[in-house]
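Sequence design from tokenized structure. All designs in this work follow the same two-part layout: the structure record, then the generated sequence. An example of the structure record is given first.
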């Protein structure tokens, strides 16, 4: 959890399974369950210290566990796949709307830079495949704050290209009811 001027945000760096969609779906279902329970589960500490003289919390209050969240990393799935749709859910009735407890693809909100936008290249069946396997998903309440999403295809960070997200977390405004307790 990171406290920002916009409010507290849970940030998860993820690397999902690369072999099977079924395994990714299990991982996603687990993560979505944790996400939806976060505000009611409370902060990430596991109870009160049974030996207060240790002062393991340094006298700090338990951190918030807000609904506002950002998931980013190597999801090993392409936009539009069943796993992708499990994260983003159904498209809301009104264009531009986002579910408050759901996620939005930051690249879609930022109007990704065209059909050649990719984070991974590999020769498949004798042809160069340019795929977007790395993603940033933002909670619905953060969707309007995404400014840009880019992939630096000139840099090699691993077998994937670095993904950069510019999101406004400086402007106050994530409501207290969405920030968690």
């Amino acid at each position: 959890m990171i406290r920002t001027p916009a409010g507290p945000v849970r940030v998860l760096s993820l690397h999902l399974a690369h072999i099977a969609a079924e395994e990714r779906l299990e991982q996603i279902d687990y993560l979505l369950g944790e996400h939806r329970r976060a505000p009611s589960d409370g902060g990430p500490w596991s109870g009160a210290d049974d030996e207060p003289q240790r002062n393991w919390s340094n006298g700090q209050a338990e951190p918030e566990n807000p609904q506002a969240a950002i998931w980013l990393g190597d999801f090993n799935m392409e936009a539009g796949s069943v796993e992708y749709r499990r994260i983003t859910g159904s498209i809301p009735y009104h264009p531009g709307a986002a579910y408050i407890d759901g996620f939005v693809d930051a690249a879609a909100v930022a109007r990704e830079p065209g059909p050649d936008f990719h984070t991974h290249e590999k020769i498949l069946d004798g042809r160069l495949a340019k795929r977007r396997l790395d993603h940033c998903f933002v909670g619905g309440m953060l969707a309007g704050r995404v400014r840009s999403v880019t992939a630096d295809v000139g840099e090699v960070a691993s077998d994937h290209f670095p993904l950069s997200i510019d999101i406004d977390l400086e402007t106050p405004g994530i409501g207290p009811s969405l920030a968690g307790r």
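Residues 24 and 30 are 10 Å apart (CA to CA). We note this feature because it recurs in several other targets discussed in the main text.
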